[in-house]
Design a protein that fits this description.
135 residues; mainly alpha; 61% helix
C-alpha cells in the first residue's frame, strides 16, 4: 500500500502542476502544450530541472532562477492539494480503480476551475466541456 500511496502522491503533484498550466493558459487562449513554461517576470524559458513539481519551488525558494521574481504560492499549493486528494481517493477506495479514476477527474476539474477563477475571475467553458465529456 505504501508504494501505491507514493505513486498517487507523485501523480497528484504532476497532475497539479499541469492543471496550473491549464488554469493559467486556457483563459488567455493559449496552448496548454507549447511553448514551454516561462517566467512571467523576465520571460526566460524555465529549464526542465527547474520545473519539477514542488521540489523546484522549494529549491529555488519560490523564485525565478534568472530574475528572482516570486512564483505565486498558489502553484505549489495546488500541486500539494491535488496530491493529497489523490492519496485520499486511494485510501477511501483502495480496491476500486473506477472510483479512483472518476474521483481524480473530478478533483482535477475542481482544482482547475478554482485556480482559474482565483487568477482570472472566470470559469472557461472549454474546461467544463472537457470535464463533462470525461465524466
Amino acid at each position: 500500500m505504501a508504494s501505491q500511496i507514493l505513486f498517487m502522491a507523485l501523480l497528484g503533484l504532476v497532475t497539479g502542476s499541469f492543471l496550473s498550466v491549464v488554469a493559467h493558459r486556457v483563459p488567455l487562449g493559449q496552448s496548454i502544450v507549447a511553448p514551454r513554461s516561462r517566467c512571467p517576470g523576465c520571460g526566460t524559458q524555465i529549464a526542465a530541472y527547474d520545473n519539477v513539481p514542488l521540489l523546484s519551488y522549494l529549491a529555488l525558494r519560490g523564485r525565478c532562477r534568472n530574475c528572482s521574481e516570486r512564483v505565486p504560492l498558489t502553484y505549489p499549493l495546488l500541486e500539494l492539494t491535488v496530491a493529497g486528494a489523490f492519496v485520499g481517493l486511494l485510501i477511501a477506495h483502495p480496491d476500486d480503480g473506477v472510483e479512483i479514476a472518476l474521483g481524480a477527474a473530478f478533483v482535477a476539474t475542481l482544482a482547475t476551475i478554482t485556480l482559474t477563477d482565483l487568477e482570472h475571475r472566470i470559469i472557461p467553458n472549454k474546461v467544463l466541456i472537457v470535464s463533462a465529456v470525461v465524466g
